[in-house]
Design brief:
By secondary structure, this protein is an alpha+beta fold. The chain has helices spanning 2-16, 20-23, 55-63, 72-80, 87-103, 106-116, 128-138, 143-153, 159-166, 176-182, 186-198, 236-244, 249-261, 270-278, 283-302; strands spanning 200-213, 218-229, 304-307, 314-316, 322-325, 332-339, 347-352, 355-368, 374-380, 387-392, 397-400, 408-411, 414-417, 425-428, 436-437. The chain contains 15 helices and 15 strands. Strands 3, 4, 5, 6, 7, 8, 9, 10, 11 and 15 form a ten-stranded mixed beta sheet that branches. It has a three-stranded antiparallel beta sheet with strand order 12-13-14, with no helix packed on it.
Length: 443
């Protein structure tokens, strides 16, 4: 577009200001092609004046934009005035472009956005109000649909950059699944899946100078990225499976990257997906699948196993991965290390008999009843609030005690808090308590 503006500016100079000797010489203006050797009056102000070399003329042309743009090219010229080198022209553009957009066809606005969005992050004279003026164009009725259709159907062009910049707004959040499955360009499908699997949209917001070696005045321009959370809730498992079946290795690469990030989530079927990726035709995808399988095997071998018996009904776990079996051998707890606060015990994800259990367990003592039915330990729904949980393994339910207890004994139906001897506190459990059910399996 900058080259087109230069050509139009040069042609306007030929028409209005070039001396007659130049007009009739070897250099010819396109505006004079059919008017040889005739006096050319100065034309009235029009859309081409948006490219004039005179700032006053450009400003005057912008203020007259309270009409429909005849095509996308001319509307693009108007939008580019938001980065004009004259402040008064930029101010006029911020005021008049929304007015012009009201009367302009959505496809012409989409033309302009497809032209400016791939490069507008490099516009150095734009301010936040000018950026908002452009992003508000996406919300004009019919424009989002035009953009979505072009992103899906275009076999060439910078559609990935356009989609990335459109995701500054939630206008296409609900269409990401369709874009991910139907877009012609594999890179566009990969971008849509990356956004869905990460749950957030990212885009290039601008550039900044980064020194490489200040001693020799060496440096380079680096992109500045911004992000936001998606406005929709998606099933990560569904999106992962769909991406893993995509015909393009580029998209499957994105899915395998996301699986690496989920590798430590016990509630996610990591092994099954890793097996699929390890057999992929793409070498990079297969390597990621094999890496995940190797890491899972290392974790399995590093797990510490603890078995209760009817005499020792208390144990503890901390700073690692643990598997605990009940005295009767019918139930198994998996506590996998997740992290730790700056000062305190580690906390762990929980699986009971292979099924994920809500919340996190604190690395601390764990207690079990002699009949292997009830288990108690420190628990939290979210970081970092300690509570004491009691789990009924037979009826697959749990409850929370009224206050946190560090050390307890299970003498059912009593839970005895012995944290502060010699004054134990007894909680009697009956069916009036608020029990919460939990699932038996991943299904």
């Amino acid at each position: 577009m900058a080259r087109w503006e230069q050509i139009i500016r040069q042609e306007l100079w030929f028409v209005r200001e070039a001396p007659p000797s130049v007009r009739t010489g070897r250099l010819r203006s396109l505006f004079l092609f059919f008017q040889e050797n005739k006096a050319i009056p100065t034309p009235p102000l029009n859309w081409t004046d948006l490219c004039s070399a005179n700032g006053h003329v450009r400003e005057h042309a912008v203020w007259k934009l309270n009409t429909t743009a005849p095509n996308g090219f001319l509307f693009t010229l108007a939008v580019r005035r938001l980065n004009d080198w004259v402040e008064q022209v930029r101010s006029a553009a911020r005021a008049m472009i929304p007015v012009c957009a009201k009367y302009t066809m959505p496809r012409h606005i989409a033309d302009a956005l497809c032209s400016v969005l791939p490069t507008w992050s490099s516009w150095g004279r734009m301010d936040e109000l000018a950026k908002k003026t452009i992003t508000d164009l996406i919300a004009v009725e019919g424009v989002a649909d035009e953009l979505r259709n072009r992103i899906i159907s275009s076999p060439t062009g910078p559609m990935v950059k356009i989609l990335s910049q459109i995701l500054r707004t939630p206008a296409l959040d609900g269409d990401l699944e369709e874009i991910a499955q139907r877009a012609v360009q594999p890179a566009v499908r990969a971008k849509a899946y990356r956004t869905l699997l990460a749950g957030e949209a990212t885009w290039v917001a601008g550039t900044r100078w980064e020194w490489v070696d200040i001693r020799y005045c060496e440096g380079r321009m680096e992109h500045v990225h911004e992000s936001r959370s998606l406005s929709i809730a998606r099933s990560l498992m569904t999106d992962m499976n769909t991406a893993a079946r995509d015909r393009s290795a580029t998209v499957r690469n994105v899915a395998s990257e996301a699986l690496v990030r989920k590798m430590n989530d016990p509630a996610f079927p990591v092994r099954a997906l890793a097996l699929r990726f390890s057999k992929d035709a793409s070498a990079s995808v297969a390597r990621r699948g094999q890496f995940i399988l190797e890491e899972l095997e290392k974790r399995r071998l590093a797990v510490t196993r603890i078995s209760f018996d009817k005499v020792n009904l208390e144990s503890s776990f901390s700073m690692g991965d643990f598997v605990l079996s009940t005295p009767d051998g019918r139930h198994e707890f998996e506590f996998l290390y997740v992290g730790e606060p700056p000062h305190g015990d580690s906390y762990h994800s929980i699986r009971i008999d292979g099924a994920p259990f809500p919340g996190l367990a604190w690395g601390s003592p764990i207690y079990i009843s002699s009949d292997s039915r009830y288990v108690a330990f420190s628990w939290m729904a979210k970081p970092i609030e300690r509570e004491t949980i009691v789990i009924d393994l037979t009826d697959r339910r749990y409850l929370l005690l009224p206050r946190y207890c560090l050390n307890v004994k299970i003498l059912w139906p009593n839970i005895v808090d012995v944290s502060i001897p010699p004054y134990p506190v007894v909680y009697r459990i009956d069916e009036q308590e608020k029990w919460i059910s939990f699932p038996e399996s991943d299904a």
